[in-house]
Amino acid sequence: MKRILLVGLVTVNAYANNDVLSVDPVMLQSGNFAFENDDKHYPKQSQFRIVHSVLMSSESGRRLAVVTIENKASGSRILQADHIMALFADGRRVHPQSFDEGIKLDDGERRSLTLSFGENEYPILAVYTSLDN
Question: By three-state DSSP, how is residue 116 classified?
Fold first, then answer.
């Protein structure tokens, strides 16, 4: 009886850890990937630039990125989900799941955000804006 209970607890514990986020390994060199973009998916033109990003994933396939984004415009701008895009290892390009509202950034302002890109079996290779291309 104890053995069955112990196995049940181990299984539940393993399942619970399936959703824990881990930081993905950092690429030492920036890569200009040359995946086909037949669908012409690009981030919306903006004056936002990604200063720094940390990619994270879970064993269940959740993909997130913590990005520090900067407004390079001379006035305040509203950051929206379609200004940012992630490139996955299968070549797909995906916008983050929508913000409830846009995020106002004053000129030169930097802000760090955690963005969700849903679930995918492939890891994120890069997160970028129209200025980062």
Answer: strand
